[in-house]
Write a structure and sequence with these properties.
The chain contains 12 helices and 12 strands. By secondary structure, the protein is α/β, with parallel strands linked by helices. A 7-stranded mixed β-sheet has the order 3-2-1-4-12-11-5, with helices on both faces. It has a 5-stranded mixed β-sheet with strand order 6-7-10-8-9, sandwiched between helices. Strand 1, helix 1 and strand 2 form a beta-alpha-beta unit.
Amino acid sequence: MIVAVDGMGGDHAPREIVHGAVEAAAMITGRIILVGDLAQMEPYLPKRLPANLDLHHASEVIAMHESPTEGIRKKRDSSLVVAAELVKQGRASSLVSAGNTGAASAASLLSWRQVAGVHRPAIGSVFPSHHGGFVLLDAGASPDVDPEHLVEFAIMGRRYAQKVMDRPHPKVHLLNIGEEPGKGNAFAKQAYKLLSAHSWFAGNIEGKDMFRTECDVIVCDAFVGNIVLKTSEGVGEFIIDTIRAQIPVNPFLRAFFYPMKRVMAPLRRKLDYAETGGSPLLGLNGLCVIGHGRSNAKAIRNAIRIAHRATENRLVESIRESFQASEPAP
């Protein structure tokens, strides 16, 4: 189990990426290959590298603002492309990157190709809830899909919930504007019909119920999913920032802040993107965990742990076996 890490991807690379990789090396049993410009990464490396951390030089970087296809085509020695190639060659089992999301998705797709039977890859993002969280997909990979593709997303999401989230019998909900079967546009109605052919389908779910209803997997197209992801992220930050802003000017809050700090800590952890680490790109013959562009060391550490756990539990193989068994509805 070897995780290739894009050491130059992200707003705070290479400093936070290197620190996160070093921290993760002490927490996992597998190996880590840190890929990037050695001269730029060296100042942030410890004098003695962990025994399970290797370095692999790559001279170029695909910037956050670059066109994904142009970056991949022109920068063959970029840290992202080289890391993806290590997985393709079998020298690594998974990839972690906090760099250009489009480039990470494109490099993974071009290098590894889709699992037979999967027509669209999907990004699965884990959200907190009152019942241990759920995975929503697609959160950004495939905005233009057909209703049939949501069945594929559901199958991949169920495998992720089983292998990484410890849900033995995960149920799938369809994100919609109402709970009733007849709700939604033509796309949603057809997706509901196709999903209903499976015993694990639990019906529609509204956005307001996602965080308080017991659910494991929620499916939608990437256009909707990415809006949900970023809106939720913004609301979480708004809550935390509002509390912080009130403490210096409100004597009442200031008096109760320190006693309440311990009570508020679990909420803060739930709203912290770094706790999740990253989102897996599912449906390919390899695993890519995509981190937030502003990932800190904690986020990178947790993204590596997710990649390691998914590999340890044979997530990619499990998805492949699902489609080989003709699990999708006819």
